[in-house]
Design goal:
By secondary structure, this protein is an all-beta fold. It contains 4 helices and 74 strands. Among the domains are: about 90 residues, Immunoglobulins (Immunoglobulin-like, Sandwich), CATH 2.60.40.10; about 90 residues, Sandwich (Immunoglobulin-like), CATH 2.60.40; about 110 residues, Nucleoplasmin core domain (Jelly Rolls, Sandwich); about 120 residues, Jelly Rolls (Sandwich), CATH 2.60.120; about 120 residues, Jelly Rolls (Sandwich), CATH 2.60.120. The N terminus is likely disordered.
Length: about 950
């Protein structure tokens, strides 16, 4: 049987790719070995030029193999990644007629082939004084110099080589692809492809003998396609040349031999530096050679349309002949030449006069064409050539049968179904243009052996395992010509619908900041992706997105417009209409944006009046802001009372933020939900006016990359009474003086924390005054701490940005005071942080009504109250790490302080809220929550007190998903 051939109308580029890369249709990657073994060359693996060239330890260079090759050996050149060997190779070792030396390129795992390209001025490959050598299926890359040179050598076969121009400037061609010098003989140059970029394709020098150049493809040489000078016994047979700028075939210098079955095409080009002779004859035989050369059965394809020749076709013994008829009439040569037509570097079209008209007995005529296709008889064309078969086409390409699919094509049915899936293929859809009987071979793509049947017999098959399969049918005529057709994918489905899974997390940037309202959902690849028809991801907020079937793990981003708990649902539909779903809960939350505090000018609020704070005032107009962390300073009160801060335009909650009295300055920090435009209302619950100043110390946003919160078990960082935080110095801070406190790098606070939460306290105060806390090394960054009267202990919680891990505490009193600072937590980008979820303010503890405790009872002196903060008022039941509270002790009958700390831990010795007999005290307590969702409140005073706790929000474990 003949070898299969899929090319009718193949171009030179396709010949290079499909011919050389497949061993020119041989179906064999390795040359037939002689009596010797195989030497391997592979620069892409562990290699050594000092070894023996085994497959496990190959040579690194081709030259290393050339230096040791013996008769009968095959040198296999590999490159798994298709790399080029940058070296000039010279072979000086010979084989024998019974055991020739063979060099061959081998395909890599990905089908790529190695090439050779000399880096310097030497030829890429030189055969020097050798004999009985075969070169096969090598790629030689043109770099502006000679590619292959045979000098002083004989009995050479240069078979199926590809000469490819390397990227770079187009110099128009200065080298020769194949050179045979005058001391070489018995050289066969067959089935090679020579791309454009050379001055000459094949060139033999004075003195060379018995050189056969057959079935080669040469594209656009600059100075000459095949040139033989002073060569005896040359045979130029069945070559195809496109030669718009130079003679296609030339013999001079007393050359002798035959020129038969060649096709020279002459596309029209204008004269230029890269095309010096666009009007030269296609065939040239000098006067000193014409008596020794026979020329016949050639083609001068001198037009691409019409019949007017583009240029003179022959120069014979110094005389120009415009047409084949003129040459024949004058010299008797070219009796069967054809002209007056166009041709390309490809197989001739059906009914072309080139078909079945060559001399099949011409010297050097091969049984296969340039692509390895068989020389066959076209039954649609009458045989016109001489020789034993009279069925050869002229040129390097042979017209093959075409096998076509009628409209509608071949079918495989059914293509989808659950395993076991039985299907069948009709085998009567294909047509041989030459009317030859066809044989069908069906590869069902599941690893089973192909099934072969004659036309008309259906071929059945049962898919036993689920999967997606690519079935292919190959149709072959009696000459071995094949045509392959791939069917649409066959999907053999699983018995049950494929599983689907979904997970989600908030997105983080490269620095570790989180955008807590931007969900990053992950959809793993299905175990049966071939079976999936589509997926839809419903984000749980009224929007959804259709997804492509994942070819790997797919990630989908979604920005939620507001904090909240959302259930995202992924619905997967397979090809059989079955659906499966997966769900995940995403808690869209907020991340903290630290702000340098800037106080708004104090504004007076009338008794029971409301002050509206705009987004511009609060600096809360940036993307996705849901809450603002504010500090409030109240002065000039006309009567005692409290301030309530709440979302503008909503019903005022029954909570309080700060309390004040006439003649005293009060300060407090709080977190307030804002409107979508960032506004907040401030209500004065007093019967008299009060003046307030507000500063924003931070924003909570669901649409900005920002920081997470890291609550800690309260820890004392500073106590001037004991020397804690002062290097052991026990001394109050004098009035008007400051103290620098290191907070970064201690008690788990990293040096790069962006802000810290501190409970700052002034005690044993010698005069009235106030405390400020500022970012170290930064001006205008101070927030107000507690204000006090002489002898009072006062506490305020503050959030303060840090840059170098330090803060500055300043005693604004005229008298000294001992200062205490307790750590409640910090903000930053380190892992394991928490996201914020604001809630509508709610009173979750009131000992006067029993709210939060279930009984009406004051918190006794030195007693502890447990407050459950999870599972109600919008706070999740699990995953909560801290609660944002405002604590109030109304009208205490004694002095003291509260300690707020996580349930289940040892009570720390810290201040959370200080109170003085007869004066209502209120302040923020951002407190870590115990693992049971409870906070402990300890009364360190000497009398029982009532306690209120207002919930403002909670912090949840990041990522907040379930």
């Amino acid at each position: 049987m003949h070898r299969p051939q899929a090319a009718v109308g193949l171009s030179l580029a396709v010949i290079v790719a499909a011919g050389v890369m497949s061993g020119w249709g041989t179906g064999s990657a390795m040359a037939d070995p002689g009596d010797g073994g195989t030497l391997y060359v592979n620069q892409d693996v562990a290699c050594s030029d000092s070894g023996t060239g085994t497959q496990n330890l190959p040579f690194c260079t081709v030259q290393a193999a050339a230096d040791v090759v013996e008769p009968g050996d095959t040198v296999a050149i590999l490159s798994p990644d298709g790399h080029t060997y940058s070296e000039a190779v010279t072979l000086t070792r010979s084989g024998t007629s019974e055991a020739p030396i063979t060099f061959i390129a081998m395909p890599g795992d990905n089908g790529a082939w190695a090439g050779l390209a000399a880096p310097g001025s030497a030829p890429t490959l030189t055969l020097k004084g050798v004999h009985d050598v075969r070169l096969r299926s090598l790629i030689l890359r043109y770099t502006g110099k000679d590619a292959l040179v045979a000098t002083g050598s004989n009995h050479l076969t240069l078979d199926r080589l590809a000469f490819v121009r390397s990227p770079g400037p187009d110099d128009g061609g200065t080298g020769t692809a194949i050179t045979v010098d005058g001391t070489s003989s018995d050289v066969t140059v067959e089935r090679n492809s020579i791309g454009r970029g050379y001055a000459y394709g094949v060139r033999t020098a004075q003195g060379a003998a018995r050189v056969t150049v057959t079935t080669n493809v040469i594209d656009n040489p600059r100075l000459g396609g095949i040139t033989a000078t002073g060569t005896a016994g040359v045979a130029l047979t069945s070559n195809s040349l496109s030669s718009p700028c130079a003679p296609g075939i030339s013999l001079d210098g007393g050359s002798s031999g035959t020129v038969e079955n060649n096709v020279v095409t002459a596309p029209k080009l204008l004269q230029s530096s890269t095309c010096p002779s666009p009007t030269t004859p296609l065939y040239t035989v000098s006067d000193d050679s014409e008596g020794q050369v026979t020329e016949d059965y050639n083609v001068a394809a001198n037009t691409l349309g019409g019949t007017t020749p583009r240029r003179t076709e022959y120069l014979w013994a110094g005389t120009s002949y415009a047409t084949a008829a003129a040459l024949r009439d004058a010299t008797g040569q070219g009796a069967h030449d054809i002209d007056g037509l166009g041709a390309r570097l490809e197989a001739p079209p059906e009914q072309s006069p080139l078909i079945d008209s060559a001399d099949s007995d011409a010297p050097g005529e091969l049984g296969t064409d340039a692509a390895g296709a068989p020389r066959v008889d076209d039954p649609l064309v009458d045989n016109a050539g001489p020789g034993p078969t009279a069925d050869r086409d002229r040129g390097a390409f042979e017209r093959q049968d075409t096998i076509a699919i009628p409209t509608g094509g071949a079918g495989l049915s059914p293509r989808t179904g659950v395993v076991p899936l039985s299907t069948s293929v009709r085998t009567d859809d294909f047509i041989s243009r030459w009317g030859e009987p066809l044989t069908y071979s069906v590869d069902f793509g599941d690893g089973t052996a192909p099934v072969t049947a004659p036309a008309g017999d259906p071929v059945g098959h049962t898919y036993a395992s689920p999967g997606s399969y690519q079935a292919k049918i190959t149709v072959t005529d009696t000459d071995g010509v094949s045509s392959a057709h791939q069917f649409a994918q066959v999907v053999a489905g699983t018995a049950e619908a494929p599983n689907v899974s979904l997970s989600g997390t908030a997105d983080t940037d490269s620095s570790g900041k989180v955008e807590a309202g931007l969900a990053l959902f992950t959809v793993p690849q299905s175990s049966a992706p071939w079976e999936i028809n589509g997926l839809t991801l419903d984000f749980g907020d009224g929007s959804n997105q259709s997804l492509a079937v994942p070819t790997g793990t797919e990630q989908v981003q979604h920005q939620y417009s507001a904090p909240g708990t959302y259930t995202a649902t992924l619905t997967q539909t397979d090809l059989f209409g079955r659906t499966t779903t997966a769900r995940t809960t995403f808690h869209a939350a907020d991340a903290f944006v630290a702000m340098t505090p800037l106080y708004d000018t104090g504004k007076t609020i009338a008794a029971h009046g409301v002050l509206k704070l705009s987004a511009a005032t609060l600096r809360a107009a940036s993307a996705g802001v849901d809450a603002a962390q504010l500090q409030i300073v109240a002065t000039g009160a006309r009567a005692s009372g409290s301030l309530t801060l709440y979302t503008a335009g909503t019903t005022r909650p029954g909570t309080s933020t700060a309390t004040f009295e006439p003649g005293r300055t009060a300060t407090a920090e709080t977190t307030v939900k804002v409107t979508p435009t960032g506004s907040v209302d401030v209500y004065n619950g007093s019967s008299g006016a009060v003046t307030v100043a507000v500063a924003t110390v931070g924003l909570q946003s669901h649409a900005q990359y920002a920081d997470t919160y890291h609550p800690v078990t309260p820890a004392r960082l500073l106590d001037t009474r004991t020397g804690t935080g002062t290097g052991g110095t026990r001394s109050p801070v004098a009035g008007g003086h400051s103290l620098t406190l290191s907070v970064g790098g201690t008690h788990g606070v990293p040096a790069n924390a962006t802000a810290v939460v501190l409970d700052v306290t002034a005690t044993t105060t010698k005069a009235s005054g106030g405390l400020t806390v500022a970012t170290h090394g930064t001006s205008d960054s101070a927030v107000s701490g507690p204000y006090w009267t002489t002898g009072q202990t006062a506490t305020t919680q503050v959030v303060i940005p840090v840059h170098d891990g330090k803060v500055v505490l300043h005693n604004g009193s005229k008298g000294s005071a001992n200062l205490v600072a307790d750590l409640a937590g910090w903000y930053g980008t380190t892992a394991n942080g928490s996201e914020f979820l604001p809630v509508t303010p709610a009173r979750v503890l009131n000992t006067r009504t029993g709210t939060g405790t279930g009984k009406i009872a004051r918190l006794a002196a030195h007693a502890t109250l447990k407050l459950k903060v999870t599972g109600a008022h919008g706070v999740p039941a699990t995953g909560v790490t801290a609660a944002d509270l405002n604590l109030t002790v109304p009208a205490p009958s004694g002095s003291g302080y509260l300690v707020a700390y996580p349930d289940g831990t040892s009570r720390p010795g810290v201040y959370s809220l200080s109170f003085t007999k007869g004066h209502t005290a209120a302040g923020r307590a951002l407190t870590r929550v115990g693992t049971d969702g409870e906070i402990d409140l300890y009364n360190a005073g000497t009398t029982s007190v009532d306690v209120y706790a207002d919930l403002l929000g909670d912090y949840d474990v990041f990522p907040a998903t379930s």
